[in-house]
Design a protein that fits this description.
Blueprint: H1 21-28, E1 35-36, H2 48-55, H3 70-84, E2 93-96, H4 100-113, E3 119-123, H5 129-136, E4 140-144, H6 159-163, E5 165-171, H7 183-193, E6 197-200, E7 223-228, H8 229-232, E8 241-245, H9 247-259, H10 266-277, H11 280-304, E9 316-320, H12 326-337, E10 339-340, E11 342-343, E12 354-358
Parallel strand pairs: 1-10, 3-4, 3-5, 5-6, 6-7
Antiparallel strand pairs: 2-8, 7-8, 9-12, 11-12
Length: 364
């Protein structure tokens, strides 16, 4: 747990991936020249129709709506409705500039809405921006324990922390572990404790053992789902996504974000409509990621002597380090395979003995 800063000046820590210079240098000596599998940055080509829509939009001049154009919001709603059977309309959706800025900026905006509260709850093994967002927003960050399968333990949340909570973050499929959560249970917990639940579902189309699922399948009251085109459509550089759910929450966030000038560029809004409308390119990408993970699992077994299971979802392999030393294991992987990976302490103090391998590039 970290407390709010109060009157103390904030000195940011090194960005996690900036700590990998030594690992990168080792990988660079390999015959493949080093392959960076530490950051989940897509490397495959976006759909041509998406690039064409961006190039021919004629939307460079005026200011597009901060909440997203009607076409943008409707395309996003239609996509999620097709995927998981929700009944969203464009009124239930607001645009984001990707998802990271939304995650990191949310605590500050929620605290403006409820200055009597000060706590952000998030999984103990998770995307670093949940905790960093709390720090940036001058909030307490409280890591919620996870079980042996890396799933959130709602029963372990201290009632005193719940009483102070601005929100609970849940992530399914999870980054870095690939765990698939019980989103219905999370929605029920939030409503029972009057805590908004924000569900990060950016990998929802990359499920390997179950059907895609959204917290919005359990109703909109008190819950918000967050999505992005970065992974599903290889548009991380385009910065486009959306959040949808509880009417009062998204209306508030949409208004305050409009005042702050948080706007997806006009050309990208046109491109997003094309991306949300097409699912064939995502099916093809799923096949690519599955093949890459299966290949890496084979390489880890044959050349490093480590067995790693396929995740439940997402495209990260979560590998246990022999002897529990993740940094030593990352060096070993750089030497043996020429890959750069992320030690588990990037994702919280509860996972120092693991390494995350992002299968975003081909590995020979």
């Amino acid at each position: 747990m970290t407390e709010a800063l109060g009157d103390r000046p904030y000195i940011p820590p090194p960005y996690p991936y900036d700590r990998l210079d030594g690992i990168k240098a080792i990988a660079a000596q390999h015959s493949n020249g080093g392959i960076n599998l530490s950051i989940g940055a897509p490397s495959d080509a976006p759909l041509k129709a998406v690039i064409d829509a961006m190039s021919n939009s004629n939307a460079e001049r005026g200011y597009p709506p901060s909440i997203g154009s009607p076409a943008y919001r409707q395309a996003a709603a239609d996509w999620l409705n097709r995927l998981v059977g929700t009944s969203l309309s464009s009124n239930d959706v607001r645009a984001t500039i990707g998802s990271k800025e939304f995650v990191a900026g949310l605590p500050h905006l929620l605290k403006l809405r409820r200055p009597d509260l000060d706590t952000i709850l998030y999984p103990a093994v998770s995307y670093p921006s949940y905790e960093m967002g709390a720090v940036i927003g001058h909030c307490r960050s409280v890591a919620v324990p996870v079980d042996e399968n890396w799933r959130l333990r709602l029963d372990a949340i201290d009632p005193a922390d719940a009483a102070r909570a601005l929100c609970l973050w849940i992530n399914s499929p999870g980054n870095p572990t690939g765990a698939v959560e019980d989103l219905g249970a999370a929605a029920a917990w939030g409503r029972a404790h009057n805590v908004p639940v924000f569900s990060d579902e950016c990998y929802v189309e990359f499920m390997w053992n179950a059907e895609p699922a959204s917290i919005l399948q359990h109703g909109l009251d008190g819950v918000v789902s967050v999505h992005s085109l970065s992974k599903r459509s290889n548009l991380a550089g385009g910065r486009a996504g959306f959040y949808a759910g509880d009417a009062e929450i998204i209306q508030y966030l949409g208004e305050v974000r409009t005042h702050g000038g948080m706007i997806v560029p006009g050309p990208m809004q046109h491109a997003a409509v094309a991306a949300f409308t097409d699912s064939d390119h995502v099916s093809a990408q799923r096949d690519v990621y599955r093949a890459r993970m299966e290949r890496m699992i084979t390489l880890l077994a044959e050349r490093v002597g480590v067995d790693v299971a396929m995740p439940e979802g997402g495209f990260y392999l979560w590998a246990e380090a022999p002897g529990g030393d993740a940094w030593a294991f990352a060096e070993r992987l750089a030497t043996a395979l020429g890959i750069v990976t992320s030690p588990g302490d990037f994702y919280g103090t509860a996972s120092p003995g693991y390494v995350r391998i992002a299968m975003v590039q081909d590995v020979s």
